[in-house]
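Batch job 17 of 40 flagged for manual review because the log was empty.
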Amino acid sequence: MPAIRLATVEDISDLVRMRWDFSQEENPQHSVDYEEFYPVCSAFLRKALEQPIRFNGGRNRWGYLKSKQR
């Protein structure tokens, strides 16, 4: 059964990869390669994840879904 929890900075590499893969499905002809995308996306995610969670109109932290290894 999948575990659902709040994403942390330790999840950034996985989150960047998932965002890249999702982008590939939407637009297979990227204007940048993964090596250029990674530092920009990871910096954005780090900044977002390090901010406190604010609900009701504030920025919400992403949830992170990862299947448990059997």
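Reviewer: the log was empty due to a logging misconfiguration, but the result itself is present. Residues 2-67 form one domain. Unflagging and moving on to job 18.
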